[in-house]
Amino acid sequence: MLSGIFLSLVFIGMLLTIGIIDFKNGSLTFGLDLSASTPDFPQKSLGDLLGLLSGIFYGLALFFYGYRKDVDSIVRGVWNFFWAACATLVMSIVLRPWHGISTFTATNWMWAVALFLVCGLFALGFLVVAGRNLPAVEYSTISYWECPVAILCGLLVWGEKLTPMGMIGGLLIVGGGLAPIIVDAIARKSRASTS
């Protein structure tokens, strides 16, 4: 029951940060505006749609990582990286970025290697191992930390604007993600003191 409440807080926080739940013109609005493109992001609607699909499949991955405890984390990690690389190759062929890669400078290649290490090796590697060792609900609440981290990086690095509803959503994500850890620590402490 408590885990469901924490997961709900995180989920509502996510909806607030991405603007599905928003406060505009004095009223609460629900929904994703797939027609809201900007000069900086002319294909924002496509990005929103693909992001939503990515979230659905990511959620399914979190469930199956926890469900298949019989599969070793290393084996799961290898297959995870393999299929991620295949999907990236397919998307690269569809998007045809070859002209951009041919003009890569040394700095571009250093960023590519850094992104591989941070986003691929560490993020997906830790995700796979965590999925084997946590229940699906706790795993999903903790993994939503990606939202506040992305918001903070966007704010500090690219100067992206953060709305008041986005701030509330970020706080709900952080609170809902930390709460299971805190509750578990308190429960362990009380069990230890009664033993």
How would you sum up this structure in a few lines?
The protein has 195 residues and is mainly α. It is 75% helix and 4% strand. The protein has helices spanning 2-17, 44-67, 73-95, 98-101, 106-133, 136-143, 146-157, 164-194, and strands spanning 21-24, 27-30.
Task: Describe the overall structure.
The protein has 195 residues and is mainly α. It has helices spanning 2-17, 44-67, 73-95, 98-101, 106-133, 136-143, 146-157, 164-194; strands spanning 21-24, 27-30. Strands 1-2 form a two-stranded antiparallel sheet. It is globular. The model has no long low-confidence stretch (mean pLDDT 77).
- Alpha-carbon distance between the two ends: 26 Å
- Poorly predicted sequence stretches spanning 5 or more consecutive residues: none
Largest β-sheet summary: 2 strands, antiparallel
Name the structural class: mainly alpha
Strand arrangement within the widest β-sheet reads 1-2
Radius of gyration: 19 Å
Can you count the beta strands? 2
Q: Give, in order, the helices and strands.
A: HEEHHHHHHH
Please, what is the average pLDDT? Answer: 77
Helix content: over 70%
Count of runs of 4 or more consecutive helical residues: 8
Strand content: under 5%
Morphology: globular
